[in-house]
Write a structure and sequence with these properties.
38% helix, NmrA-like, globular, NmrA-like domain-containing protein, alpha/beta, aldehyde dehydrogenase (NAD+) activity, 15% strand, three-stranded mixed beta sheet, 14 strands
């Protein structure tokens, strides 16, 4: 059931007298969206944000409201609601389904309406993924192709038939029409546990997908596994580092004066700071506004070996060496769908890093995070 009465109005609040930016965020209870929302709540400019989230459950909506967040009950299939919420936003941060073209179009329609009503050009930060880069390796080989977000012709060569690509192209087209500025973030394999008040409150999913799925399957078969030869390569990023890329773009999108704390001689180190921009000309949108989010890469075999060792150490496997999944196991554990696990998806986040994004975690932390994923799987 949709609560249209909870849609925020741009002119209806006195409690937020300092509000400058209306933000509509989707996926607040998810792994990525919840991590981004956590950063917004602790941001130095948080008192200038009016943040609205869309959630499925009224109980969770109540919890969000107690945290000072405008929460509307609905789903991503409520296209009219998505349009209405987007039409009231200066910035939409979309963190739900990278393949839902209908939802993306509804958000774009709302942003177009916002532009027509205000004369201002709103912004959209959309979450895609490097699944758009995958090949058909099936674990048999490592590709030499590495995509770079500064290589526009290379990005434009990606076929429209690739996963996520039709949505990405629709978003770029909207930017071309001039009523919205679009920024597309493409995470690769994301790892690490999400943390923060939303996780503590039971509002946010703290686990990723690819690594936890491989761990869960390994536990079920009592041995780590891989596809083909496990030779395929994916780039990776820690969830905490990924979230900081969203706030970097947000700070570049939203015009703001330095806060009193930022102007002081001794800013609190626990608070995020306005980033040092290394090359502002690289802050681009539309066809040039693709931002890979990576800080390392791994082969599937190396992940399987780390899972196998963690299981052996925990007494959950008698052999630490992983083995290839059989055809029956591929069907049993993965329903035959393995394209986001057995493919190559390699990229370089040169644009984000030259803008000042400084991810801290590397592939070494990916391997060490597997022990925690194993504990979650068997608990």
């Amino acid at each position: 059931m949709t609560e249209f009465s909870n849609i925020p109005s741009c002119h209806s609040t006195t409690m937020h007298s300092k509000i400058k930016t209306h933000i509509f965020l989707t996926g607040a209870t998810g792994y990525i969206g919840g991590s981004v929302l956590t950063r917004l709540l602790s941001h130095p400019l948080s008192d200038t944000f009016h943040t609205t989230v869309l959630v499925r459950e009224s109980e969770k909506a109540t919890q969000f409201r107690k945290m000072g967040i405008q929460a509307v009950v609905g789903t991503y299939s409520d296209l009219e609601l998505l349009k209405q919420l987007a039409s009231k936003a200066d910035l939409v941060i979309a963190c739900v389904d990278a393949d839902d073209l209908s939802a993306a179009n509804a958000i774009l329609e709302g942003l177009k309406e916002r532009h027509e009503q205000t004369g201002q050009v709103p912004s959209l930060i959309h979450t895609s993924g490097t699944g758009v880069l995958i090949d058909d390796a099936r674990g048999m080989y490592a590709s030499d192709t590495v995509y770079n977000d500064l290589n526009i012709s290379q990005l434009e060569s990606i076929p429209s038939t690739q996963p996520h690509r039709n949505v990405d192209l629709a978003i770029v087209e909207a930017d071309t029409e001039g009523y919205v500025k679009t920024y597309i973030i493409l995470p690769p394999t994301i790892y690490g546990r999400a943390t923060g008040p939303l996780v503590d409150a039971g509002l946010q999913n703290p686990r990723s997908q690819q690594i936890p799925q491989l761990v869960d399957v390994a536990v079920s078969r009592s041995r780590a596994g891989y596809f083909g030869k496990g030779a395929n390569i994916w780039s990776n990023v820690h969830i905490a580092d990924l979230a900081t890329l969203y706030t970097l773009l947000l700070e570049l999108i939203i015009p703001h004066e330095p806060t009193e704390r930022a102007r002081s001689e001794e800013p609190a180190p626990s608070r995020p700071r306005t980033p040092v921009i290394l090359d502002h000309s690289l802050f681009t949108h539309g066809a040039h506004g693709f931002y890979f989010a990576e800080n390392g890469e791994h082969t599937l075999l190396s992940v399987a070996e780390a899972i196998g060792q963690a299981m052996f150490d925990a007494g959950r496997a008698t052999d630490p060496e992983p083995s290839p999944f059989s055809a029956d196991e591929v069907q049993k554990y993965f329903n035959g769908v393995t394209k986001f696990l057995d493919s190559n998806s390699r990229c370089k986040a040169d644009r984000a890093k030259k803008l000042g994004w400084k991810p801290k975690k590397t592939t070494k932390e990916l391997y060490s995070s597997i022990k925690q994923e194993l504990k979650s799987s068997i608990s």
